[in-house]
Design brief:
The longest helix has 20 residues. The N and C termini lie far apart (55 Å). The chain has 129 residues and is an alpha+beta fold. Strand 3 and strand 4 form a beta hairpin.
Amino acid sequence: MDVTEQTFASDVIERSHEKPVVVDFWAAWCGPCRMLTPVLEREVAAREDAIELAAVDVDANQRLAAEYGIRGIPAVKAFRNGRVVKEFVGAQPPQTVAAFLDELLAPPESARADSRRLRYASAEQNFRA
């Protein structure tokens, strides 16, 4: 989905409260951008609607590019709960993009720790019973 300065708040910030949104900051003249975009599209599609992909043309949306500190493109930023949680700059191979997306979908460390504590408490309770 193409995102503009007018739609960024709803398409990225608000949407990222429902599921992760990966934003590809790019430009038409950028060769590495043209290499990365199909990789992003393919890897996001492989995750079956778990991640939203948005594209921001930095030439047409210079305020957004400045607001998010875009100094080089392609720049990819992942949003969760209205804020950037992961990012990378430059064209990356498919394996790196896949790992980036998989890490984005992984539960936060605090959730994993809570899960371990619950399993431990349950095991302890079963042991004492």
